[in-house]
Structure formats: C-alpha cells, structure tokens
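Box 3.1 — From sequence to structure: Endonuclease/exonuclease/phosphatase domain-containing protein
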Amino acid sequence: MRIGFWNCQRVGNIDTNNWFTADRTGFVWATVEQWLKLASPPDVLVLAEITQSGEKLATALNQDSFIQAKGYRAEFHAFANKNGGASPCSMLVIGKIDRRGFQVDICGGRGLKRPYLKITWNDKSFGACHAIANPNQALDEVTTIIDDLQAQDVSVLIGDMNYDFANFSPDYQGYNQWKPMRWGDGPSFQGKKTLDYVWHDSSTAVFPREVPPHTDWAVIDHAPIAFEI
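Predicted structure (token representation):
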C-alpha cells in the first residue's frame, strides 16, 4: 500500500478569484493531480490543515473528470474546534476505489489536542496525524497515538509530527519498538526543518516513494511525503 501525506497550510476555499496564490487551493489541486499522474501514485493520500470549507473541496474533487478517471474518491473529515464547529486543521482523504475501497475512522481522546485518522485500504490500516504545534508536547502526543494504534494492531503512522526529526540522535532507539523515518534528506517545513515523516514498528517494512517536487515554501510551508508499506 502506498500512502501520501501533505500539510496544505489551511486550504479549502474554492469560492475565490485568487485560485493559485493567496488561498492556495488551486496550487494544491494541481499538485494533487501531478501526484496521481506518477508511475507509482499513492493508493491513499491525506491532506492536512483543511479548513471548514473542506466539504465543498471534496465535492469539487469528486466531480473532477481527472479524479474520476483515475478511480479516486475524496472525503472530508472535520475535527471539532473548541466551540464544537469544524476546525481549520481538519483532514481530507483521497483514496483509490479498488476492491473493498477505503474506510476512515476519526480517533482521539486521552488528552490529544487533535484527533487522528485511522485509514483502512484493502484490509491494510495506518494512522495519519497532525500533532500539536508545540515541540515540547508534540512528541508526547505522537507516542500516545502510537499506543492507540498498537492496541488496534496498526503499525504505521504518517503525518506532521511537529517535532523536528533533527532532534533525534543517530543512536535513537525509538519508542516501544517503533522508529521514525524521514522522506529523503531535505527538510519538509519552510526549507528548514523536517516535521513530516513516518513512524513504523520494527516488523513493518516502509520505503520512501516519489512525490511531486516542492520548493515554493511561500505558497505552502510543508512539502509532500509518501511511503510504501
């Protein structure tokens, strides 16, 4: 199973005259299409930091002839904000409709600032998260999610960990048989830090996969990542 993840810096508005610049939605849409044109595209693609307009974006993607021809379906999954409405840090999942398709479960609790997603595609599952934007708390939140996933026999977590990969020492032994793995050698955030990567347990093989090139940090401050489980 090939999985992709991209923090899209609060994208979602499709009712705009500024399609490719200030609201960035068109830029993300075009990059997603590039991604799905690759020789080995993701089976499931997770877009994070999707705003309250995410439902409209998912509907528009599902009406797009290219997305339909490639056999994908988009689903918006809103996380609640402190007032009970949709958070601007919700997620949108684009999955290939193949065999049994895909299922998305919103998981959370136990002191997590934001929920995370458990995504199952053709009987294989993984977690996707956007951890709290506080490096002093983010790693604790990530390990809490790992505990939850282990209890569900899930062995991979991808996402914006909000904890710089450079903080791990070369001899870091991981957490409870899980280890972090970065995509490539370059940074994933503003050309400076690596916040987006994958965790996996020692029994699960994970390999980096091709992603669309990304260098315009002024438009989207995170780069896409992809792995094969």
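Summary of the box: The chain has one domain: 2-228.
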